[in-house]
Design a protein that fits this description.
Blueprint lengths: L1 H12 L11 H31 L17 H20 L7 H4 L4 H22 L9 H11 L1 H16 L2 H17 L1 H7 L3 E4 L3 E8 L8 E7 L2 E11 H9 L9 E13 H14 L1
Antiparallel strand pairs: 1-2, 2-5, 3-4, 4-5
Helix pairs in contact: 2-7, 2-8, 3-8, 5-7, 7-8
Length: 285
């Protein structure tokens, strides 16, 4: 790992459009794995800061309702894990090697000068583009927090650029795909081991567990209510905003997520009492 880190530092000290000496498959894989590891280490360092920023409620929630077919694990891996990295690599990494087409417009000597500018600027632009993930936020706060908010993308951009130049486009794309898929798949074990939210007293019992991805084919939504009281609610694989809107015509105006909700009450509770239970749950997160 130390040798690869030194190679990266040397490359950015004096960028040259030159491929690695050892282009063997095994060496290529070694570089990809080390760079994924570096990505992971950096992300582990800034993740606690990102979490703290989110707890301060500085960043507004994405309150758009979940589209179930677009929220499955398969859809997220296909789009966010494969298609998006492919498009981003086409834009930000593919142009970074001299080729015959470039030769019609610019000499190799002039290209080496331009190459340095592109190597420094393209990864930076790649990171800044990801600020578009944050909407409805004060521009000064966004600028102040940007080194943290897009730090992972900036570091990744420079690492993938190094791979693209030293090896090839496929190496940078593979690394980018692996990293994005890791970020998507990590929520599967997190959701599995995360403890549910439970409240119980003499009159009712509430179980609520959230998850990141949808399973539309396993959706359940049933309600037992009469005379203005709710006795039982069973919800599986529906979003919390959808549930609150369907049952109470309430615009929750908070981040939407998939829930598994089970509520039972012997004597029943009113709609307002149930709404307060959900509000307490929201405030606990």
């Amino acid at each position: 790992m130390k040798l690869i880190i030194r190679d990266i530092i040397a490359f950015y000290k004096d960028p040259k459009d030159l491929r690695a000496v050892d282009l063997s498959f095994s060496n290529n894989i070694r570089y990809i794995l080390v760079i994924v590891m570096l990505d992971l280490i950096f992300f582990a360092l800034i993740a606690p800061i990102l979490h703290y920023i989110h707890t301060l409620k500085i960043l507004p929630d994405d309150t758009s309702n979940i589209i179930y077919k677009q929220n499955t694990l398969f859809f997220n891996v296909l789009t966010g894990g494969i298609l998006v990295p492919f498009v981003e690599e086409l834009i930000f990494r593919l142009p970074l090697r001299f080729n015959k087409i470039y030769g019609f417009f610019i000499s190799e000597k002039k290209w080496q000068f331009l190459f340095k500018i592109l190597v420094y600027s393209f990864p930076f632009i790649f990171g800044v583009v990801h600020l578009s993930n944050y909407e409805n936020i004060n521009v000064f706060i966004l600028i102040a927090l940007s080194p943290i908010l897009i730090g992972s993308q900036l570091v990744g951009g420079y690492l993938y650029t190094f791979l693209r130049v030293r090896f090839n486009f496929l190496s940078a794309l593979s690394c980018h795909v692996i990293w994005n898929c890791l970020l998507i798949l990590i929520f599967v074990p997190i959701n599995y081991f995360e403890r549910p939210y439970e409240v119980q007293n003499e009159n009712f019992k509430l179980y609520l567990k959230d998850s990141e991805y949808s399973k539309p084919d396993k959706q359940i939504f049933s309600v037992d209510s009469s005379h203005g009281k709710i006795y039982e609610i069973s919800v599986k694989e529906y979003s919390i905003n959808h549930v609150m809107d369907s049952l109470f015509k309430i615009n929750r105006n908070k981040a939407d997520f998939i829930i598994d909700l089970r509520f039972n009450s012997k004597g029943g509770i009113t709609k307002n009492e149930f709404i307060k239970l959900i509000e307490v749950y929201d405030n606990s997160n």
